[in-house]
Every structure is written in structure tokens, then in C-alpha cells.
Amino acid sequence: MTALDRSSTVAVVGAGTMGQGIAQVALLAGHRVLLHDAVPGLAAKAAAGVGARLARLAEKGRLDAAEHRAALGRLVAADGIADLAPAALVVEAVVEDLEIKRRLFAELEETVGDGCLLATNTSSLSVTAVAGALRLPGRLVGLHFFNPAPLLPLVEVVAGAASDPAAVDTAYDTAADWGKSPVRCADTPGFIVNRIARPFYAEALRLHEERAADPATIDAVLCESGGFAMGPFALTDLIGQDVNEAVTRSVWEAFFHDPKFAPSLAQRRLVESGRLGRKTGRGWFAYGDGVAGGASGGAPGGAPGAADASVPHTAEPADRPRRVTVGDLGPAEALRNMLRKTGIEIVEDAGVDCFELSDGTSLRLADGGLEPGIQFDLAADYTTATRIALARTPEVPDAALAEATGLFQALGKQVSVIRPVPGMIVTRTVAMLVDLAADAVGRGVASAADIDTAMRLGVNYPLGPLQWGERLSLSRVRETLESLHAFYPNGRYAPSLEVQWRAWAEEE
Question: Catalytic site residues?
Fold first, then answer.
């Protein structure tokens, strides 16, 4: 371990929410903490805020009285940069402006000793660029905490192009010593989480633009079938549409307008209209007094008189089929045993792709194509999923759709019928998450294990994307992406080289 000794001093510059959170983490790890902000009086106010949070922890029995008193004694509001001279580590958490950060670190470099480790908490700027003007750029690394820092375990430890490996090791080990779950990554746009998470938002927005389903239904399917903790529309309302769109645009521009990261016109119009989400009272959904109860995945109610905007489309009850033909279910194999418990007669036929209904209509797992029949969407776990999306091509009769609906209702699922689009909702989203994750491994951004850890801990995904890809098989992911690419031949869905290599390796 090369973690900082706990007797060493840690300085935090920037006394906003993130800076206060980082200060609290370092303080509870046993360090003396200097909290500084350029705005006069803000550091003292922030230190008082940290003290109040520690008092609440003590009241709840999560911090004993002696630890509470000791921590308060180690917290100092520093009035000027010169007061930070004793620091062994300085963590910067100021506004996301490259020139402001560069000026700050240049001033810090003239203040602290040459052995002091410097860290930026940037979430979107290049660590290499932040360090570019320093006399000793090797001692600057990225330490990207997630908000709220005291609660969320993930820290992305980012190595800039000039970062010393020893400095990166110290930052990593210090974060681990503070009780965090650090992951290592290279200095690329979005690092791990903000790079790989883009399709979770982007595919939902694209599906909305294609009128596949309304926001509440897309959210419900991704949560209740895909296993995600919150749907992308409710989540971007929580984050702030302006903030989420700015990150998307930043990553897209940093990747020279790669279509895989393209922003959404629908989200741009929402931002232009001032509907930024919870903080303005309206985004994709409405918020405030008198608003109806929420939809699945945290989606709030609509405005009074328009609450249906937050309610996912759910099919009316339908009769269960008396008999169904079952073939190769692939990733949906769990449905076979579930079906046996319903009393529906099962006809086994290995030549059938998933299911065949009584009139011969095929009922298949979504695969990125649009062949005639009915498709059902992917689930993270079919045994626990509470909702399934169905989509039929135009020639499928109402009776067949009703039979498919009744089949999944007999399995205990609510059913949402959406417009037929390639890849449906969960299938398309997961394929893109797997693709970007695999591409990041192939380009040396981070290891597969660190990527999966980051996506589970940083954004609470039900599975790491690479683990999900292995469960589905990379061959299936590649075929899904190739089918999507055939419908949208602009490069957005073209499978990455790493997905293709891994799929070929599976097939050997």
C-alpha cells in the first residue's frame, strides 16, 4: 500500500456540495483537513455544514462521541491558498472550467511542497490538459468522486498522459484506505462511467423521438424488465436536463462527433424551453405540490389534470393461451420452467425460435431486426421481471397480440405494447452498453473488471455491461448491433472491433 499516512494533511479546494463531501470522507478517515474556497466566508460556512452532518451521524449512533469531537478538531476553514502549504494531498473540486482549474493548480504548485500529490475531481475535462501548464505535471491525477461523496463508494482514479505511475498508485491506495472502491482508468473523454453510460440516456431519447413509446413506458420497461434502478427520463430530470445534455455534448465533441455519442434534439428542445427537471418543476415529467404519485423507476406524476403523462402504458388483461409451442429460448430460457407452472400446455419443438402461437405467429426475443411476427424484450432476470414489452409487425392480427399478451400475463408480468422498432428498448440499450464497454477495454481505457465495477457502483446497473455481454454471448450482441446497423447505417450501431474479436473468440 502507498496510501497517504493518516497523520498527513489533506486540503480540499472548492467548498460546494462535492468539496464538502470529499472533506468529510478524508476527515472520517483520520486526516487533518483544510477546506478552502475563493469566495470569502464560504469555507467557514461549508466547514460548519460538514460539522452539522457529523453531528447527525453521531446522533444516529454511526459515529461515536470521541470520534465526533476528534473529527471536528481536525477540520479547518482555510482563508487563503497560502494556508494550504502543509498539505500532502490537495483535491480540487471547483467549477468545471479548464482555465480556472489550470490557474488554481499553478498557484497551488507555488504553495505546496514538491512532494504534495495534486488531484482534480473533474468529471468531464482532460486531466492531461489540467496538468499541462504545471512545472511537475506528473504529480497531478484525477480523483473523480461521485455525489454524494460520503455515500457513494466509487472513485475513478484517472491517469493523465503525464501522470507518474507512483502518483496514481498513491491516489488509488488512498481512496481504498478511505473506504472507497477505486477503479483505474486512462484519461479519455467521460472516463469510465460518463463514457459508457451514454447509451442508457441516448437510446431512450432516440426511442422517444421515433415514437416507439412514451417516456413513462420506456422508463418502466428499463426498470421493471431491464432491472435498472431508475429510468433515463426520471433520472435526467433528477440530474437536470441541462447538466445531462452538457455532459453528452462534451463527450460527443471530445470524440470528434462520433455518432455513437450524438446528443438528442428532443433533449436540446427541453433545455431550450427551460424544462430542466425537478429543479424547475418540469422536465419530462411535472413536479411540485398537487402532483400525482410516481410511475415505475422513480418517474413522478404529471401536472394536475395531466397525470397520465407519468403512467406507463399497460395492456388490459387478456386470456391466456391454452397451448403454446416452445423452442430455443436462448437468453430467455428461464421462461420455460415458469411456463410449466401456469398450466398452459407446452409443445416442445427445437426448430422453433422461442415461441409459436396457436395461429402460427412467431413470438421471438428481440434481436435488432424486424422480421414478421411479435417480439418480446430482453429482461435482466425473467423470473423477477414484473413487466415485459411486446411489439408486433403490421400484419400480425389482434388475436395473436392478445394471445402473446395473455401468455406473459399468465407468467405474472405486466405487458407494455410498443411500436415495432429495431432492438425494442432493453435489447437495444444493453447491446450499446456492452459495445461501449468492450470498446473501452479494447482501447485500454480500463480493465473489464474495473468497468463492470464502475457501472454497478457508479450508476447502480443490475449487471456490469461486460458481464451482461457474456451472459447473452458476444455473438448475440454482435448480431444485434449488425441488425441495428442495417436499419441505421450511420455508424452509431456498428459493432466495435473489440465486440467482433470477442464474438469470434466465442465461436472458435
Answer: 123, 144, 156, 194
